[in-house]
Amino acid sequence: MLFNSYAFILVFLPAVLVGFYLLSRGGNRTALLGFLIFASLFFYGWWNPRFLTLIIGSILVNFWIAGRITQGGDAGGRAWMWAGITANLGLLGYFKYAGFFVANLEAVLDADWQIPTIVLPLAISFFTFQQITYLVDTRRGLVPHHRFSEYCLFVTFFPQLIAGPIVHHREMMPQFADPGRFRFDWDNLALGLSVFFVGLFKKVVIADTMAGFATPVFAAAEAGAPIGLIDGWGGALAYTFQLYFDFSGYTDMAIGLALMFGIRLPLNFYSPYKATSIIDFWHRWHMTLSRFLRDYLYIPLGGNRRGRVRRHVNLMVTMVLGGLWHGAGWTFVAWGALHGAYLVLNNLWRALADRTGVPIPGGAWTARVLTFLAVVVAWVLFRADTMAGAGEILAGMAGANGTRLPHLTAEIKWREAYTQIAGLMAIVWLLPNTAQIFRDHHPTLPPERPLPDLTPRRLVVGWRPVRAWAYLAAFVAVASLANMSEISEFLYFRF
Q1: Per DSSP, which regions of 265-344 are E strands?
Q2: For the segment 257-284, what is each residue's pLDDT rounded down to a tens digit?
């Protein structure tokens, strides 16, 4: 069920809130947990009920294995942990990567194997990662005893189930175990609705509008058409903002939904396009994925503890696998490898700057623009369906095919497109983000490390539960609902 659908906003959400309100008045925490688990499974099964068997089976198996890890001692616990990780990755590998690997083997061996079409279950990448962290931390002795109902809600909690944030058990399960959390609160409802409709506006008004400029360019590139300079940069920049407002919009909506039930989710975006380096970018973009890759892949590989060369190898491996997590395709592998190369160069540059003491020419704004351009180039690989399509876009951006493609010039009003792109660039570079607007009311869990705001203080106007903000929230809600005539999936649903 899509957050940006009338069925969710006008039927499912009100029904769940009413049920939550009635049960919270009775103070029966067990009933509340069961109700939210049922609602979350209903939400998940709306698209395809047969995948309920998959997620329920995954929960049962992983919780059972966690118990075996706890009881298995040192050697036995380690063996059970690896068995659980293998089972999770095997499930993910079958549904997400089997077709990709078979297709590549067919190409290498010149074979023609007939395999059935494998439908990718929603959220499998997200709930697989969450459960792997639970198993690994159980083996490390970092997981206290939890009831099965709390574990079920940790995996299935519908605000973050489909596309994150990738929540950690140490953040969520203490909240689920806290009796004071599960009670209806009008302040939480007001705050949650406000954050939710900001996210909905990002998705249906901004991201979907940008999709109208980006999609024709990438479709033309996949068809083999030469892409002009204006077309290439217009399509790449439009997708850059489409992806940001689509995914950060989803995350805002998830945060707002969780707040309505008294739960704080982790911060997942913090002005990533204001980053002054690629390292800084990954501290701000999809922060919960960056945390997972660091704690459960980069550090176990050795991190930066085994010398500079090994550190750079670990970075490359981590980012390539991070790219592959996003999708089964060579474009995602190339995107991850490019970001790995960016990070290696960034670390080498920092080491050189520390030794020589030479400042970056132009200061922070030069660094911000260069970082942004590097990210835009990488997003071309992320968006393209094939390497050939990505190559056409990048060639156009380099000016290899002239100024513009006649077909796209007729289809897209580039003057309007670039005007909107310029406006969005000003928004993401100058204005406060959602977390800053609502931060006085702590809508999210605090980040692990403090991040500089990078926004002039005079431009930060904080949300308050007053009439003016209520009117503004109502306007945003109406504008969003009016633009939902064509329901579009969130981009991260496909991952």
Answers
A1: 265-266
A2: 999 999 999 999 999 999 999 999 999 9
